[in-house]
Design goal:
This protein has 8 helices and 10 strands. By secondary structure, the chain is α/β, with parallel strands linked by helices. It folds into 2 domains: about 170 residues, P-loop containing nucleotide triphosphate hydrolases (Rossmann fold); about 70 residues, no CATH class. Strands 6-7-8-3-9-10 form a 6-stranded mixed β-sheet, sandwiched between helices. The chain has a 4-stranded antiparallel β-sheet with strand order 2-1-4-5, with helices on one face. The longest helix is centred in the last third of the chain and has 18 residues. The chain is globular and about 50 Å long. Bound molecules: adenosine-5'-triphosphate and magnesium ion.
């Protein structure tokens, strides 16, 4: 593998050349609006494409509508206007090609780890023994082997987050929507998760839509970053960090190209702070 970072200033889709990521869009958000009952306008005509097989991050101020947009893509809540297409088909509700890792874990407190992880498969009518075998594999994969029969209240916040991740991976969806999936873990675990996420993106052919509040994390893991403005949010910039993944994460984090992208995003986002 190419070691460390290859050059690269951030590129925006507004630059004349080179073109943005060539992958076809797996998710297309077209002029989507969302006004909640009570009149809060979370989104107003946002349009955004998400390239297939890549990781795209939504980065923006708290309350700008990131979770709202993920839920609309997932089909969990309806948009007030506009359309979302996944793999060319318009979203009308949840579907097996999309999986969601929630900001607040959303585990079933009365169900064991293995049942939580197997839940998506249970909904699809997969036989008990088969879904438990699949769930066991994913539980091991996120480092929770031995905790299959525990309940959510017996786990730490980070462990619960791993259960949420295992549940999303178990259904083998094409598109994985992740809402701040690493926010409850310590820095060491977070970095380990980031490496594992990069491996998933590289090896599984899935498309990831990721939300984080950490600019560093976004630059480290993303193929593409959509910067969002305050509510009702619009896309203020598209940045493709072009980090060449090497085998020395520490060196990448000290590299000036990486740090320049972090700084540039900070310069844009700090205007949205109160
Ligand atoms: N169910 C709801 N009913 C009414 N208003 C809502 C609802 N859910 C979200 N909102 C409002 O919509 C706006 C966007 O919320 P959303 O949760 O999408 O933001 P976010 O970008 O995910 O924020 P954070 O970074 O803090 O998670 C906020 O003003 C919020 O108060
Ligand atoms: Mg949110």
């Amino acid at each position: 593998m190419t070691p460390n970072i290859a050059a690269a200033a951030p590129r925006r889709t507004t630059d004349p050349a080179p073109p943005p990521l060539a992958a076809r869009p797996i998710v297309e958000v077209k002029s989507v609006s969302k006004t909640y009952p009570g009149g809060i306008e979370a989104l107003n005509g946002i349009s955004l494409d998400f390239p297939e097989g890549r990781l795209t991050t939504l980065l923006g101020p708290s309350g700008c509508g990131k979770t709202t947009l993920l839920k609309i893509i997932a089909g969990l809540i309806p948009a007030s206007g506009g359309q979302v297409f996944v793999d060319g088909r318009e979203v009308k509700g949840p579907g097996p090609e999309r999986a969601f890792v929630f900001q607040d874990f959303a585990l079933m407190p009365w169900a064991s780890v293995i049942r939580n992880v197997a839940f998506g498969l249970e909904l699809r009518g997969v036989a008990h023994s088969e879904r438990e075998a699949i769930a066991e594999r994913h539980i091991a994969r996120v480092g929770l082997k031995g905790f299959e029969r525990k309940y959510p209240h017996e786990l730490s916040g980070g462990m619960r987050q791993r259960v949420g991740l295992a549940r999303a991976l178990a259904v083998d969806a094409k598109v994985v929507l992740m809402d701040e999936p690493f926010s409850a873990v310590d820095e060491q675990t977070r970095r380990k998760f980031q490496e594992e996420l990069l491996e998933l993106v590289a090896n599984e052919g899935k498309s990831f839509i990721f939300v984080t509040h950490s600019i560093e994390e976004a630059v480290y893991v993303s193929d593409r970053i959509a910067l969002l403005s305050r509510r009702p949010s619009r896309v203020s910039a598209i940045i493709e960090p072009k980090i060449m993944r090497g085998d020395d994460p520490d060196k990448i984090r000290r590299d000036s190209a990486y740090l320049d992208v972090v700084e540039e995003i900070w310069q844009q986002l700090k205007h949205y702070l109160d």
